[in-house]
Nucleoside diphosphate kinase
Amino acid sequence: GKERTLAIIKPDGLLGNYTDKIKNVIVEAGFIIFKEITLQLDKDGVSSFYAEHSSKSFFHSLIKYMTSGPVLVMILEKENAIADWRALIGPTDARKAKITHPHSIRAMCGVDSERNCVHGSDSPQSAQREISFFFLEKSAGKILPYD
Ligand code: CMP
């Protein structure tokens, strides 16, 4: 049946004017953009969204990157949405994506393993948690709408 996943166009994607290109890829791949919101994340919001990475060496840098400008958060819907969105965005490291998955979204607009321009939930459990994080919980009070 239909499935939902969480997608984020990260600050470099938005500031680099990739939003329309990415949305065209999304729609042509058969996804429906069920909900979307543009947000300016703060340190607390990003830290709690990426809590599973809190012990990683790149965590502080990831927070700086994800708070460096607005992000576009979307719920995408289609059959097999979670795996299909992950396939469409390509590997985490955009440098690798440019070689192994040249038609992927990260190959198109990403820079390296951190600045990879988009996010996608990696499992049904993650999708549920991440959708709730942005669209259900009142914790989103920490997350300020951008416009
Ligand atoms: P994302 O798929 O949103 O999930 C976690 C994010 O952490 C990832 O995209 C990157 O932006 C960042 N990240 C993952 N691995 C690394 C790494 N090795 N170095 C720097 N940033 C990373």
Remarks:
- The beta strands are 2-9, 32-40, 71-79, 118-120, 144-145.
